[in-house]
Amino acid sequence: MSLASHLPALQVVLPLVAAPLAVLVRHTGAAFLLVTLASWAAFAIAVLLWQQIGSHGTISYALGSWAPPLGIEYRVDRLSAFVLVLVAGIAAVVLPYSRRSIEAEIPREQHYLFYAMFALCLTGLLGIAITGDAFNIFVFLEIASLSTYVLIALGRDRRALMASYQYLIMGTIGATFIVIGVGLLYLKTGTLNLVDMSVRLQEMSNHRPVLAALGFLTVGISLKLALFPLHQWLPNAYAYAPSVVSAFLAATATKVSVYVLLRFYFSVFGESLVFHRLPLPEIMLALSLAAMFAASAIAIFQDDLKRLFAYSSVAQIGYITLGLSFDSVSGLTATVVHLFNHGITKAALFLLIGCAVTVVGGSSLSRLAGLGKVMPLTAFGIVLGGLSLIGVPGTAGFVSKWYLVLAALEKGHWWLALAIVASSLLAVAYVWRFVEIAYFRAPPAGLPVRREAPLSLLVPAWLLIAATIYFGLDTSVTVGSAAGAAAELLGMAK
Amino acid sequence: MNLASHFSYWITLFLMVAGLFIVIARGNLIKKLVGLGIFQTSVYLLYIAPGKLIGGTAPILAEGFKVYSNPLPHVLILTAIVVGVATLALGLALVVRIREAYDTIEEDEILLQDHARETEAPFER
Amino acid sequence: MRHDLVLRVIAKLLIPFILLFAVYVQFHGDFGPGGGFQAGVIAAAAVIFYALIYGLDTARCVVPDRLVETMLAAGVLLYAGIGFAGLALGGNYLDYFVLAADPVAGQHRGIFWVEAGVAITVCGVMLKIFYMFTARGRDED
């Protein structure tokens, strides 16, 4: 057998192996090199898998040659391939940035451990997206979460410790809810394989434990994806984590949780059970709208740019779940496209904030005064990213909002389309706060006249900004894959 | 009677709710972790109890045994226990460091300290 | 550290048996309850016991920090390496059937090495957690 047929296993195993190797070498440079190479390899594999899916359809890989449903199956379909590309791609861009960035933020003797943790986090996130086994999802979720708690606690500020602790409590409750849901499903169906489970669930869709499992899974995953009002852990976690970690998490962690939600809703329970027997679409719709408006409004009043964009993340998650609640191909397309577009936009923004922090020493808005003069490239990048958050045509954010509005109109909800536009106005308000401070205030005394961040920081950040613009102009790749994934999800359900 | 025959579920439910209550109601960071532990333990019971067959033995082939309990829940829960241990260890490690940084492990006092610092020097990080 | 003769003598007598029991649990895992996870914890418990009686510094001389950190990484690598061995011999990842000419023997061989990896990592992790917590607030003083 050729190596190409083992790509699904290598996808997860390469970053996994990089973690203990990084611990063994105990050397910052070597650990950095190992983990970065592993992430690039993972990205290459993800792209290859994505191409294979395009031409050959779903790939199933039996770990240990135990055929599913008995053994653990790795299953790559359009949606998981798309998420794999996003996660591995962000990691591949963020890691080269980390070398310079963590020098200022993390004690040097802990650097190799940082890389090991990062590799584990990447393993977990990739594993969630690729596995076809319900309990395996939980295991990978915990690998990702536990390493995330450590990464957040590495932040300079002592408040990072409390943020990490709170995330640990909330995240563990969420994960435990997920295990309870999976357990109830296992008790009912006697299988953990997702495909097998969905087949067996069809005959028992009105059994009460199945509905209870749906409830537990919904709450648990919503905690993980920070659906309003279960988002309290998110702002502090993003605000006090090291910049690299904020960027990576904002782009991937919540997105992968959305993937889990989609997977359970559409591939396991089936759309008819989720959306027609319970008032879930209405609940989702209400919570998404609340997230879009409340979180954006809170974002306007933040004094710290990282916190501001963290609240904006909560609002953007609202858009993602809004598309899901429509239960239509166009709505799901909007959801999946926005996963990707918001991921790259937020990663770019947090990377650029990290650039600013290295020069001005903090991310509070007062410190960033006059940033447009001191660091023109960084400030301009943040503005471009902000435009994408608002959804200005020509940026990636516009594409997803466009499809969201289309989906709303298709359902006949013209007022929802108006609401989407109205909430974008709130985004204008919070992005304007940065613009005003960066361009219309004088820099505080003591700052150099002009000093950009080093290139090793600027290049990855601008790469993502460029991607934001590119995917705003050429939508064939993102929207094409997302539409394919959405159709596949709904097709499986019928 | 139905109530008695499902006693393992009742215990599970009791532990689940009790654990969750402790996590929510207590301000002490260690006590919160204790609650979290109880909450997770309830799940172990939820998985393992239905896997046991009355009269069944451990699933190891041997003479004279026909009925075996389902081993899969045990394996799953062994994994979940490992995850629980890791979570607890990490949580306690965080509490140790929080105590070093704030000199207290009461949540409200920590929030008070943070709040005081923010009003004193709102723009410092 | 108080010099407590009874404890020291009993510890010296007990620790070899604890370690032996760990080895038994490890190797008997094929045929009865047991396996790498339990064996690793028992072995770590022996070292922790030693540290409780003879002090942390003595224990750190016997099982140094460096070794512990190496153990917790090496075990995972051993596990992953078995997976790659399956790949190299033409099977899927973590395929034990191909590890020997006879598939059943292959399963035995695969599970043996995987359990060894688990034991090494678990023992390392347990000791690491113990060292970290006990040394906290001491190394800094």
Q: How is the topology of this model organized?
A:
The complex is a heterotrimer of chains A (494), B (125) and C (141).
Chain A: H1 7-25, H2 28-56, E1 59-62, E2 73-76, H3 78-105, H4 111-130, H5 134-153, H6 159-189, H7 194-201, H8 208-225, H9 233-240, H10 243-269, H11 271-276, H12 280-300, H13 305-325, H14 329-360, H15 371-374, H16 376-390, H17 396-410, H18 414-440, H19 455-473, H20 476-493
Antiparallel strand pairs in A: 1-2
Chain B: H1 2-5, H2 7-25, H3 29-51, H4 72-102, H5 107-120
Chain C: H1 5-28, H2 36-54, H3 56-62, H4 65-88, H5 103-135
Provide structural commentary:
The complex is a heterotrimer of chains A (494), B (125) and C (141). By secondary structure, chain A is an all-alpha fold. Chain A is built from 20 helices and two strands. Chain A has helices at 7-25, 28-56, 78-105, 111-130, 134-153, 159-189, 194-201, 208-225, 233-240, 243-269, 271-276, 280-300, 305-325, 329-360, 371-374, 376-390, 396-410, 414-440, 455-473, 476-493, and strands spanning 59-62, 73-76. The two termini of chain A are 35 Å apart. In chain B, 73% of the residues lie in helices and 0% in strands. Chain B is an all-alpha fold and 125 residues long. The longest helix of chain B has 31 residues, at 72-102. Chain C has helices at 5-28, 36-54, 56-62, 65-88, 103-135. In chain C, helix 1 runs antiparallel to helix 2 (36-54), helix 2 (36-54) packs across helix 3 (56-62) and helix 2 runs parallel beside helix 5. The two termini of chain C are 17 Å apart. The chains are: A mainly alpha (494), B mainly alpha (125), C mainly alpha (141). Chains in contact: A-B, A-C, B-C. Chains A and C meet through helix 1 of A and helix 4 of C.
Structural class of chain A: mainly alpha
Helix content of chain C: over 70%
Oligomer: heterotrimer
Distance between the termini of chain C: 17 Å
- How many angstroms does the end-to-end distance of chain A come to? 35 Å
Instruction: Specify which chain pair forms the largest interface.
Output: A-B, 35 and 33 residues
Which structural category fits the helices and strands of chain C? mainly alpha
Give the low-confidence spans of chain C.
none
Fraction of residues in β-strands of chain A: under 5%
Shape field of chain A: globular
SS elements, strand count of chain A: 2
- Overall mean pLDDT of chain A: 88
Low-confidence stretches of chain A: none
SSE topology string of chain A? HHEEHHHHHHHHHHHHHHHHHH
Number of domains of chain A: 2
Average of the residue pLDDT scores of chain C: 87
Backbone shape of chain C = elongated
Following the backbone from N to C, one meets helices and strands of chain C in this order, namely: HHHHH
How much helical structure, as a percent, in the residues of chain A?
A: over 70%
The side-by-side strand order for the widest beta sheet of chain A comes to 1-2
